[in-house]
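wait is this the right file?? whatever heres the structure
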């Protein structure tokens, strides 16, 4: 194992985090707030990062799969631990475990919060809280790959470890150029949303904060009612962008370079919007007796489906009070998530589609023993290795979700609250049902449960394997 390269890369990442902390520091300064907590955190990140770089100059910069997994898992832990310091040092979140939970929730774009009223935060801290969504949305290390030339050697292993979905490849021959393309698309879409929200009458600060939350599909808001008090125009704008950020970013690349016909052949995209349309229709019809307005029912339904399916976590209504059918549909959407290669969490539509095709193929083989067929996705045959990988992932997913739920069972809440909290955090959704619904928070959970849920958020965002590699004894064996 190239341990020097691991430490060197972690050092570079912490230096990048120090630079990123200058942005909320500047925002706090503009509003005349005390920014000492950001100064201390930025200097700490820069100092530790520089120390790591100096004490571990790598003999070779080659990164293999093992190093890629370890770098990703350690980076998310280190950057979250440091990123929690502004909340803690400013005493706006006086408990470090709570600050760590909030930061992990931000970087993993989960949006689960321990703050009953986020409007009490200062501008600088509120900006950093939402900025963590934007940084973590496309991937902390993908951002750094686009900025640091020394991370380009075999860095596709880092992208595979961090980017969500069953298959990750390059858009162009060099992984670093792929990272640049992805982030250019990401930045452009974020800027367009900020402009559209400003046109709708929202001030620049709120437009940036809510756009960061939408782009990263995170969902941290700066008001207690999330998006409930916004005008229909702003709610509809956020709805559209939640769905857009749930699309595989590779498809945007194809669209930009005039290969639009390839997009129309995407089975995952059709399944994504098909599931969304069906869910919106079912919920809109189901909640119509509550709101007595077809337009309001459709708008609220579309917003909440987009929020849950893209795992953003914003809300315009307390869906905890909706009929059982609507809640059941939203619960299923928490599992599905959006497309692979997007900023969303969840299982990913491609995995769900692939699993259904695998089951169908196996059923045909059982009924017709001589049947010879292959499983295809996006017009390509899926090899046995990928099929086994998907099946293994589902098995691991179910086992870990059950374990998280059992660990939360010590809390004095009902099954609905604990199960939805486990599902929501593991799938990086944010709000759940019961005492962790959209009108509530995770504040009442114990410190132990908050650490469990933080671990669940990391497992879900990194799709299990990097974290398991990190804690497996065999990973650190010299054999």
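ok assuming it is, sequence goes like this
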């Amino acid at each position: 194992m190239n341990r020097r390269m691991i430490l060197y890369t972690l050092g570079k990442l912490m230096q990048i985090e120090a630079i990123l902390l200058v942005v909320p520091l500047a925002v706090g300064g503009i509003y005349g707030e005390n920014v000492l907590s950001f100064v201390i955190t930025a200097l700490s990140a820069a100092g530790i990062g520089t120390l790591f770089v100096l004490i571990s100059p790598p003999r070779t910069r080659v990164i293999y799969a093992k190093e890629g997994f370890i770098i990703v898992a350690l980076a998310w832990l280190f950057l979250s631990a440091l990123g929690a310091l502004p909340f803690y040092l400013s005493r706006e979140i006086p408990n470090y475990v709570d600050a760590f939970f909030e930061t992990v929730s931000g970087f993993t774009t989960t949006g689960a919060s321990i703050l009953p009223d986020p409007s009490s935060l200062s501008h600088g801290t509120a900006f950093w809280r939402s900025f963590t969504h934007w940084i973590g949305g496309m991937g902390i290390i993908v951002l750094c790959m686009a900025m640091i030339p020394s991370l380009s050697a075999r860095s596709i292993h880092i992208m595979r470890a961090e980017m969500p979905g069953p298959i990750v490849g390059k858009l162009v021959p060099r992984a670093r150029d792929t990272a640049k393309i992805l982030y250019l698309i990401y930045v452009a879409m974020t800027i367009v949303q900020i402009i559209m929200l400003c046109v709708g009458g929202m001030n620049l600060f709120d437009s940036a904060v809510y756009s960061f939350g939408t782009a990263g599909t995170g969902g941290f808001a700066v008001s207690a009612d999330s998006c409930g008090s916004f005008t229909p125009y702003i709610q509809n704008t956020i709805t559209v962008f939640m769905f857009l950020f749930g699309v595989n970013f590779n498809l945007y690349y194809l669209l930009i370079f005039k290969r639009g016909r390839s997009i129309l052949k995407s089975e995952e995209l059709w399944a994504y919007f098909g599931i969304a349309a069906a869910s919106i229709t079912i919920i809109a019809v189901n909640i119509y007796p509550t709101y007595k307005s077809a337009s309001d029912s459709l708008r609220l339904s579309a917003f909440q489906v987009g929020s849950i399916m893209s795992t953003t976590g914003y809300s315009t209504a307390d869906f905890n009070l909706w009929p059982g059918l609507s809640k059941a549909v939203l619960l299923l959407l928490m599992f599905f998530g959006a497309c692979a290669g997007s900023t969303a969490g969840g299982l990913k539509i491609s995995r769900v589609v692939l699993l259904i095709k695998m089951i169908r193929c196996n059923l045909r083989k059982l009924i017709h023993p001589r049947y010879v067929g292959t499983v295809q996705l996006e017009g390509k045959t899926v090899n046995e290795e990928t099929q086994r990988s998907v099946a293994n992932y589902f098995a691991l997913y179910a086992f870990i979700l059950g374990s998280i739920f059992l660990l939360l069972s010590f809390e004095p809440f009902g099954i609905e609250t604990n199960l939805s909290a486990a599902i929501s955090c593991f799938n990086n959704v944010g709000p759940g049902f019961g005492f962790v619904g959209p009108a509530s928070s995770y504040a009442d959970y114990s410190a132990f449960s908050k650490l469990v849920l933080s671990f669940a958020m990391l497992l879900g965002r990194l799709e299990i394997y990097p974290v398991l590699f990190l804690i497996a004894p065999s990973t650190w064996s010299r054999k």
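The longest strand covers residues 376-377. so i think its the right one actually
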